[in-house]
From TrEMBL:
NAD(+) binds at D241, V242, A243. The lineage of its organism: Archaea, Thermoproteota, Thermoprotei, Thermoproteales, Thermoproteaceae. CDD domains: IMPDH. It comes from Caldivirga maquilingensis (strain ATCC 700844 / DSM 13496 / JCM 10307 / IC-167). This is Malate dehydrogenase. Pfam families: CBS, IMPDH. K(+) binds at G296, C299.
Length: 473
């Protein structure tokens, strides 16, 4: 049967995000209460539908930790040794699901100094820590009288490292504090958790596994069983990382690889109905589909080779193949070319469960690339994994890495620096919730059913963008 392909009303036209608009539908909920949770693979759930690309200027442990804390998930790139990838994955699994910050007061501080510190950190309460022990707790109101810090202290507010965010919020409420001191099993102070970081309001609940640890994915090549076996000891799922998986050798290797790992393997990249059928008939089980060929912002495949399966169109193709072959509950990840929150919801309307982004996340502080100043503007370096720079790193690291192509299919460049990931993600998710609201969907699954497209004309596109204003005021 055809479901998703028919939604795109012109046959033979490989439409992209900007070629369509979503039609409004009857809204039943306020955007803020729309459920953004979804699955990234058959058995792994996340709370916001955003996945970061496995690219060496996008996802290492720092970004994966930050994204999972916000409810999404990062996929650690594979342009490093197996050992380094295992360690990056482990770092995410070992990280606390909320930030733990090493702020405390020293018993020798005067009350004025303590007050200045609390003001600087914008906190109401902090522990007093002496030689690694929490010896008391200070709140601003107690400092007003002046005097020795230790005489103004209250009893410590503490919890073991590894406590859940909900447990910490409960302790803070009981004690009327905005922080809790976290201590290890020997009662040594590790840092504080703050109420402001425990943003447990949906949808930004951390994406965690059954044991409360952050969720993380890891990229693998279909031919690297050793890597797959080693990283899947720790990673929640694997993501096959090749530009075009509908390839005889890749599918043969993959059919074996999926039998060797205990976790879901997301297969990609795929771009067509037939390609998806090839993967489905050769690889079992399939943990998810990674879809889109040549749409990435740093991608030059389409230019160099003339071959492309634009993400929106490709998603509809693969979604129908999955439905036709009984894999209707196997998640599809739209990958490449996503610029706006609305693009994520367009991808959902075409059959996707989540969106993978490289450029948008490269712009965050937490991405593993330097901030670069040009004039008085700040940028981050971002490159395709098939670019000259990324390929050079691969060959430097592993001189036996097989060279199967002699051309670059990716470019390197700068993207505007946008600050902390949390700001970027909150903005994006707000836009996704608003878009879901407009199309009358109360969750991501409904978006796949209720989302309807119209092709937009050139003049229509002009009209839906801000227009006819004097912009330079
Ligand atoms: P965005 O648009 O989010 O796309 O920056 C990220 C996706 O682009 C793919 N990718 C590449 N594609 N040559 C390509 O043809 C490359 O060098 C390259 N590097 C990454 C990848 O699917 C990623 O998630």
């Amino acid at each position: 049967g055809i479901m998703f392909r028919e939604k795109i009303p012109i046959k033979g036209l490989a439409v992209t995000f900007n070629d369509v608009v979503l039609l409004p539908g009857k809204a039943t909920l306020d955007p803020i209460s729309i459920d953004t949770s979804t699955k990234v693979s058959r058995s792994v759930s996340i709370n916001i539908p955003l996945v970061s690309s496995p690219m060496d200027t996008v996802t290492e442990d720092a970004l994966a930790i930050a994204l999972a804390r916000l409810g999404g998930v990062g996929v650690i790139h594979r342009n490093m040794t197996i050992n380094d990838e295992v360690n990056a994955v482990k770092a995410v699994k070992d990280a606390s699901p909320y930030p733990v910050i090493p702020f405390s007061l020293n018993p020798l501080m005067s009350s004025e100094e303590a007050m200045a510190e609390l003001r600087r950190l914008n906190l109401d309460t902090l522990p007093i820590v002496d030689e690694g022990r929490v010896i008391g707790y200070i709140r601003r109101s107690r400092l007003l009288t002046g005097g020795r810090l230790i005489e103004l202290a209250e009893k410590p507010v503490m919890a073991p490292v590894g406590s859940s965010g909900d447990e910490l919020v409960k302790i803070m409420r009981e004690n009327g504090t905005d922080t809790v001191a976290l201590v290890d099993k020997d009662n040594v102070f590790i840092g504080i958790a703050s109420y402001y970081d425990l943003n447990y309001k949906p949808p930004f609940k951390p994406a965690t596994d059954g044991e409360g640890r952050l969720i993380v994915g890891a990229a693998v090549s279909p031919f690297d069983v050793e890597r797959a076996v080693k990283v899947s000891k720790y990673a929640d799922f694997l993501v096959v990382d090749v530009a075009h998986v509908d390839n005889e050798n890749a599918l043969t290797a993959l059919a074996k690889l999926v039998k060797e790992t205990p976790v879901d393997v997301i297969v990609g990249n795929l771009g067509t109905y037939d390609g998806a059928v090839d993967a489905i008939t050769r690889v079992d089980p399939i943990g998810g589909f990674r879809v889109g060929i040549a749409s990435g912002s740093i991608c030059s495949t389409g230019v160099v080779t003339g071959v492309a399966a634009p993400t929106l169109w490709a998603v509809a193709q693969v979604a129908d193949a999955a439905l036709d072959y009984g894999l209707g509950s196997t998640p599809i990840i739209a990958d490449g070319g996503i610029r706006e929150p609305g693009d994520v919801v367009k991808a959902m309307a075409a059959g996707a469960w989540a969106a993978m982004m490289g450029r948008v996340f490269a712009q965050a502080t937490e991405s593993p690339s330097p901030i670069i100043r040009v004039g008085n503007r700040l940028y981050k370096y971002y490159r395709g994994m098939a670019s000259e720079g990324a390929r050079a790193r691969r060959f430097a690291m592993d001189r036996y890495a097989p060279k199967v192509k002699n051309i670059e299919e990716g470019v390197e460049g700068l993207v505007p620096y946008r600050g902390d990931l949390a700001n970027i993600v909150r903005e994006f998710v707000g836009g996704i919730q608003a878009a879901l609201g407009y199309i009358g969907a109360s969750n991501t699954a409904e978006a796949r059913v209720k989302g309807r497209f119209m092709i937009v004309t050139e003049s229509g596109r002009g009209e839906v963008e801000p227009h006819d204003l004097v912009l330079n005021i």
